[in-house]
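From the pipeline queue, job 12 of 40. The input is one protein chain; the requested action is below.

Action: predict structure.
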Amino acid sequence: MTRRTDEHPEMARPEVGAPIFSTWRVGTPERQRAAVEAIAATWERRPWPAEGLLGYHVYAGEDGTTLLHHSQWRSEQDHEAFVKVHRQERVDEIDVVVPGIERVGLDRYRHHRSGVRETGTRAPGCVVIVEIEFEDADAARQRAWVDAVFEALESEPAPHPGGISAHFHLSTDGRKVLNYAEWESADAHRRAMAAPGDGVGSRTPQWERVQTYPGLKRSTVGRYTHALGLAPE
C-alpha cells in the first residue's frame, strides 16, 4: 500500500538509479494546496504502483504557483513501465479536481556528488533547487562544473551557517545540472543570497569561474517547502 511520510528523501541513496524531477504550474496558492491534496488522495487510494519506485515527493514553490515533483526510481526501465500502465489514470483523476494544470517538463538525472555540513539539523526547513543549463551536451563539462562549485565552496571565507547540504545531479542528456540544496530555512537562504562575501557566491576567483563557466546558458534558483512524501508500506 501507499503511505504518507514527513521525512525528506535521502538524496544520495545508493539504490536510486534514476532520480526524476518535474514541474507543474498550478497558478495560485489555493490551487497549489488543492493539487497536493489531490495527489495524496489519488495515490493513497491505490496500491504502491511499482517495486522499483522507492519514493515520491512533492514540494510547494515559494512563488505560490508551482509544484516540484521528485521521484526516486531504481532504473529508468522501472519508470517507463509505470508510465505505460499507471501514470495516466492518476493524472486524469488529479485533473478532475484541479483542472488546467500546466506540466512544464520532466528531466531524468543521475546523482553525481553531495556535500553535507555537520550542523546537527536533520529536517531542512527549505529546499533550494538550482538548475544549470549548458548550450550543448557535454558530460565531462557537467562533472567539471560541479567540481568547480565544490572548489568555490571550499574557498568561502565565511560560509553562511544556514546551509545543510548540496546534492548535485547530472541530466542524462548531458545539458543540465540540478543542485538539490537543503537549508535550515528560507530566510537563511535569502540572507546568504543577499550578502555576497559572507555566504553563497562570494567574490572569489573560484566563484567567478563557476558563474562564467564556458558554455553556461542559464541558471535558475527556486525555494520550496516539502509538501508531501509518499512511500510504500
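Job complete. Residues 2-107+225-232 form a domain with the Alpha-Beta Plaits fold (CATH 3.30.70.100).
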